[in-house]
Automatic annotation (TrEMBL):
EC number in record: 2.7.8.28
Key words of the record: Magnesium, Transferase
InterPro entries associated with the record: CofD, CofD-like_dom_sf, FbiA/CofD
Superkingdom of the organism of origin: Bacteria
Organism for this UniProt entry: Arthrobacter globiformis
Top enzyme class: transferase
GO function terms (MF aspect): LPPG:FO 2-phospho-L-lactate transferase activity; magnesium ion binding
Name the UniProt record assigns to this protein: 2-phospho-L-lactate transferase
Pfam families: CofD
Matches recorded under SUPFAM superfamilies: CofD-like
Amino acid sequence: MERITVLAGGVGGARFVRGLRAHLTDAFADAGSKAPEVTVVANTGDDMWLNGLRICPDLDTVMYTLGDGVDEDQGWGRSGESRRAAAEISAYGRGWDWFTLGDLDLGTHIVRTDMLREGATLTRVTEALCQRWRPGVRLLPMSDQPVETHVRLAQGTSEHMAGELIHFEEWWVRYRAGIPVSEFIQVGLEQASATPEVIEAIGSADAIIMCPSNPVVSVGTIMAVPGVRDALDSTDARIVGLSPIIGGSAVRGMAEQCLQTVGVDATALGVAGFYGARTRGGVLDGWLMDVTDAEYLPSLKELGIRGATAPLWMTDTQATAAMASAALDMATSMATP
Ligand code: FO1
């Protein structure tokens, strides 16, 4: 196995990739064998313009986590952060005071926006930022065009009417996904396309892993980008996903609310059905569930998806490395001879 491509969202995706990297470092420790190259295709649907800066939450979460600069407790943002500039911005009544741009984090947004304004693509900007952070994987935005997830509120709030579209981050951070929504809309999707780098990373992969990220607004958004599904359909790689739901609840974040909005059961089986079997128009060859969800194995078989179970709680890098190893074993066991 020489090339692994991973579709990832934010915190869960970043932590999974860190485990994958640890597993590969360990498995290919002896200098003789070369570890596979890992390419991470990250969701940019959470991106936004804020205070004139381009914010890319999932790209930055992967970059900081793999570059050992992330605030481990939060799972996002920088360690050792301060918020002096944010206090000043708030004092002027500008920006979102419920969405904190820390002083160190602002450095990233300023450099990214600076390079974008010079005409660099988001792919090139991300490559440049990673020169500093050295994540040990290639990190790619899903598209160089903006695709922003917005949610349509099914209920009004003191600031918004029912039926209004607001940015996903406002729903996620300000309202903690506590307001029912009727739909997710990826603004800009029709004008966007997967980058050539993403298409190539999917086409040339030996294994593709769908991270245990939010299947609707993270992995689902990546798959919705024009060009991605075609690439997934035609690649020779085996595609294995890891369930973000364990025993009926989301490992982190609020995936249940997102799944409920799109009418998918918040279970490991429901998410597998949402992705679908590759042999039946979906994307999955294999689906890795937590050991507590073994009851779904027979139903997975009926869906046409090879199932397996392993402990999926990402309690630490060691546990996550074991998950990554189980996912790769699954892909290898299915690889065409
Ligand atoms: N999440 C929060 O819960 N509160 C915040 O104030 C916040 C600020 C923030 C700033 C930059 C950034 O890249 C991420 C930030 N996040 C914050 C996390 C963000 O909501 C998540 O990383 C993803 O968008 C959801 O997975």
